[in-house]
Amino acid sequence: MSYKIQGFSILTIAMILLGSSFVAGKSMAASVPISVALAVRLMLSAAIFVPLLVQCERRLPRLGRRCCCLLCLEALLGVVVFNVLVFEAYKYASAASVGIVFGMLPIIVAVMSAVFLAERLRGPAIIAILLAAMGTAQLSQANASTAWAEAVTTIGLLLTFGAVLCEGAFTILGKALARLLSPLATAALVSVVGLLMIAPFAVDDARDFDFAGVATCDWLALVWWAMASGIGYFWLWFAGLARVDAHAAGVVTVALPLSTLPLSSLLLHEAITSEHLIGAGCAMAAVLIISIPSPRMPRLFLGTSARVSRNS
Question: 100: domain range?
Answer without folding.
Answer: 3-311
